[in-house]
Amino acid sequence: MEKILQVKDLELSFHTFAGEVKAIRGVSFDLKKGETLAIVGESGSGKSVTTKSIMRLLPESSSEFKNGQILFDNKDLTKLPERDMQKIRGKEISMIFQDPMTSLNPTMPIGKQVMEPILKHQKVSKAKAKEVTIELLKMVGIPNAEVRYKMYPHQFSGGQRQRIVIAIALACNPKVLIADEPTTALDVTIQAQILELMKDIQKKVDTSIIFITHDLGVVANVADRVAVMYGGRIVEVGTVDEIFYNPQHPYTWGLLSSMPSLDLEEERLYAIPGTPPDLLNPPVGDAFALRSEYALKIDLEQAPPMFQVSDTHYAATWLLHPNAPKVEPPASIIERMKTFPGSRYYETKGGNV
Amino acid sequence: MAEKLLEVKNLKQYFNAGKPSEVKAIDNISFDIYRGETFGLVGESGCGKSTTGRTIIRLYDATDGEVLYDGVSVHGNKSKAEVKSLNQKMQMIFQDPYASLNPRMKVLDIIAEGLDIHGLVKNAKERKQKVIELLETVGLNKEHAERYPHEFSGGQRQRIGIARALAVNPEFIIADEPISALDVSIQAQVVNLLRDLQKEKGLTYLFIAHDLSMVKYISDRIGVMYFGKLVEMATAEELYKNPMHPYTKSLLSAIPLPDPIYERSRVRTPYNPNDHKYGPDEKVEFREVTPDHFVLCSDKEFAQMKKEIK
């Protein structure tokens, strides 16, 4: 499939009074046409910073690209002048933000806000732009759009506001849509509606989506591929089935086991001990080693490279090195692996040994 | 089960009562919480679950109805001493660990505030000793006592909130979405801590949340709220296995699980309150369909549910 966006060895630092914070420490991934790539990880893992650097939304005074490239349309976005970036932002690549309560302008009717990118990026008359706006609002499920497009954000509920934010993001038929925790501030029922809407729209307009979240249930629902981030690096990447049914990195194990399952009776939840690493002084070696019971000696000395598990599945853990000792993942992970053909715990149904 | 610790009887909480802008935040709900159990309260935002918690602990005065704690009414005119003794028995953990700690107070003083008010310590040395003990109980250490809230992460702040609630040796803790603001890996740490404390100190919890999978994990019994009304109440196990009210069914069908194969086949059933088609004089009441499983339903629906069980 065609690669629409490529991030190569991206490194980015923030300059703060306390020193240099290495927020992204070598991130590489591709986004293919029409797919949804989910990036998961806890706060501070660098998932939001990665996408903000694609959009070049980080303050230029305090952030610095140290290394790497972001290739989009044969252009390296890290080196593009701001003037050219403005032509891409909102048109070719657009973004849905986390909090629909703060990402809309409270003093501007919503119709005007949806119309803004259309007037900015496309040579159309105001009347035509209004027509497109009303169509967009209808598409994202705002009832009575002809009347409501004159209303202000406070006259809408949280779910409706997020629909409006989605309409703004889709206004110019972007090739890439970045959704930064679009449902975290919403209720389960509203969340389900927004996810259904996004999937629907993706089918209609064939855009690629980068979906950032820390909710693994949402990932299982929307993603084609998943990248797990920890301490400013991608530690595991694969198709959604590979990540959920054949995870290899101890951090992915930890994430998956700390979610309670609805049908399993567990006495205690698995909790990843400790706290995320301090990226002012990033740890040498595998950043997760200090919180991992599976850490090997080498984890503290040298960062693991990406080991290939399958054509689509890579994980950065020394456990995959041919000389590494064989370890048992947590019980609930083995349960998951049993259902995945190709994993070492796979049980064929039928009883052959 | 054991004795009732808390009885909520026909509780009503109306805001702007009598005005056109009247909001029935809690509309006639009743439930009991038994000593030593965890009662979960779920529902979407705006359904009145937080208001219920806040009314129980007397942050709001109830419009009507009663809350009995250990047989004593929580609301109404009370002497200072009575209020104080209630405040010692009931404590609250708040949702947002960033907003619920005073940024200008040291952790030591935040946690000790309750100790001072209730006169539980005699001198500064004992006060500090007690705070350090509490910090250790929640998995922090004594160096943390001299710091300010901004020096802590979200999970650590929530632990400070828990330590503050525990300081006065309460029997009953209302936890209002204590984990919604935390990361997944930290959520598990806090939930495990709450469970350990319950075992150790025999605490009773009212756990308010909208994350249904966590609620199921921590609760013994669960009440589901919708628009100020309790629509269903049962043991955690029973509620997830046999949801009866259409709203509960819809809520359960909306939870995404970390299981891609299940997700591909999951169908969400939307809930429309008009589907009940209640007649004008039909009595919609909270009825016990099977032992300990209550559903808000009309006569007709009640008969229907009974039939479906057999």
TrEMBL record, chain A:
The residue ranges of the ABC transporter domain are 5-256
Q: State where the protein is found.
A: Cell membrane
Listed GO molecular functions? ATP binding
Highest rank taxon of the organism: Bacteria
Q: Which SUPFAM superfamilies match?
A: P-loop containing nucleoside triphosphate hydrolases (SSF52540)
Pfam families listed in its UniProt record: ABC_tran (PF00005), oligo_HPY (PF08352)
Topology in the membrane? Peripheral membrane protein
Q: Which UniProt keywords apply?
A: ATP-binding, Cell membrane, Membrane, Nucleotide-binding, Transport
Q: Which family does it belong to?
A: Belongs to the ABC transporter superfamily.
Protein name stated in the entry: ABC transporter ATP-binding protein
Q: Which organism is it from?
A: Sporosarcina highlanderae
Automatic annotation (TrEMBL), chain B:
Q: Does the keyword Transcription apply?
A: no
The chain positions of domain ABC transporter read 6-252
* Nucleotide-binding listed as a keyword: yes
Give the keywords, sorted.
Answer: ATP-binding, Nucleotide-binding, Transport
Similarity field = Belongs to the ABC transporter superfamily.
Annotated protein name in UniProt: ATP-binding cassette domain-containing protein
The record's annotation in CDD domains points to:
ABC_NikE_OppD_transporters
Give the source species: Sporosarcina highlanderae
GO molecular function annotations of the record: ATP binding
A Pfam family matched in the record: oligo_HPY
